[in-house]
Amino acid sequence: MVDITLVIGAVIAVVVITVVLVVWLQSRLRKKISLEFADDMGTSYVLKTKNVEKAYSAYKDLKEKRKCHGMVISRVFPERLCQKYELEKNTFMWLSYEKTKESIDPSDLEKLEFLIHDFASAHKDAVVLLDGVEYLILQNSFDSTLRFLQSLNDQIILNRAVLVIPLDPASLEKKELSLLERELETLQVDYRLSRFFE
């Protein structure tokens, strides 16, 4: 017969080890993302992830580390973003056809580029998070959005800013993803377990 206290003890030990491992892996992931951004001002990044929260966390860390101004462009209403991600003292643009002081028409890529350029040139070493590239592709086309990102990347370089774009790789065709990866720095955020032991 198996002693029930031994079984309970073994289960508790497995749970504790699992919790410790998860916490350790999460801290490694945060360090990995921060290190990837190290000293690359004037760079546009595509963060390949299914979890957009990781991009917001990386954005906040980068902004805090650089002690610079930040701009968030998203499909999520700015008030909700502030509550969900505790974003303060940021400039927000809401990708929406609704007319508000914080909204931008998602089909007007030229105006969006102008607003980002204007912000980046007005604020030294700015950090910009563009959450909604998939939506921009749907509202325009992949080719139009790619041209927009190419031009925007040039502005980011000239203004020594950083552009962070979270993107679920499954949302694009393989060819489209390859074209984006040729234009922008790519970081794989959803690490496989083995990557944490490098």
Describe the protein.
- With 198 residues, the protein is an alpha/beta fold.
- Helix 4 packs parallel to helix 6 and helix 5 (133-139) packs across helix 6.
- Mean pLDDT is 85; it is low at 191-198.
- The protein is built from seven helices and seven strands, in the order H-E-H-E-H-E-E-H-E-H-H-E-H-E.
- It has a single domain (4-197), classed as Rossmann fold.
- The longest helix is centred in the N-terminal third of the chain and has 34 residues, at 4-37.
- It has a seven-stranded parallel sheet, with helices on both faces.
- It has helices spanning 4-37, 52-66, 78-85, 109-122, 133-139, 142-158, 174-183, and strands at 43-48, 70-74, 91-95, 103-104, 127-131, 162-167, 185-188.
Could you name the CATH topology? Rossmann fold
- State the helix count: 7
- Report how far the terminal alpha carbons are from each other: 43 Å
Chain-averaged pLDDT: 85
Rounded radius of gyration (Å):
20 Å
Please identify which CATH superfamily we are dealing with. Protein of unknown function DUF257
Largest sheet: 7 strands, parallel
User: Strands across the major sheet, in which order?
Assistant: 4-3-2-5-6-1-7
Total E-strand runs: 7
CATH class type: Alpha Beta
